[in-house]
Design goal:
Length: 121
């Protein structure tokens, strides 16, 4: 009887390991779709780099932003505050889908906010 019990225990262990491997593989596929796909659907400004974007800090003058990153893809004035402007350095290629969001908010010529996000629709 010990051999039968031992074979059943081994079979259960193999099934458990295979189930865990299958779950891990499914998680990797889902994460790749959610995390890698946004970068494929993102358009960047011509002078943009992640390193330069990371060097921008709140309080920097707008001139430093333009020196490091170049002109943004788009400048949007704030509806509520005309002294505030959104500088868009990354936008979706297609209609609003998963993409990487990179923008900087400038008020009175100074960086007040910086956004580095993954936008998931």
């Amino acid at each position: 009887m010990r051999r039968v019990h031992s074979k059943n225990a081994r079979l259960r262990a193999v099934v458990l390991v295979l189930s865990l491997v299958a779950c891990a593989a499914m998680c990797i596929v889902v994460l790749n779709i959610r995390v890698i796909a946004p970068s494929c659907n993102t358009r960047y400004a011509s002078g943009y780099s992640e390193k330069a974007f990371g060097a921008i800090v709140v309080g920097d003058p707008e001139e430093r932003v333009l020196d490091l990153l170049g002109e943004p893809l788009e400048r949007d004035p704030s509806v509520n505050d005309p002294s505030r402007t959104y500088l868009w350095y990354a936008k979706p290629i297609g209609p609003s889908e998963n993409h990487l969001l990179r923008n900087i908010v400038v008020k009175d010529g100074e960086v007040t906010q910086k956004y580095r996000q993954i936008w998931l629709d």
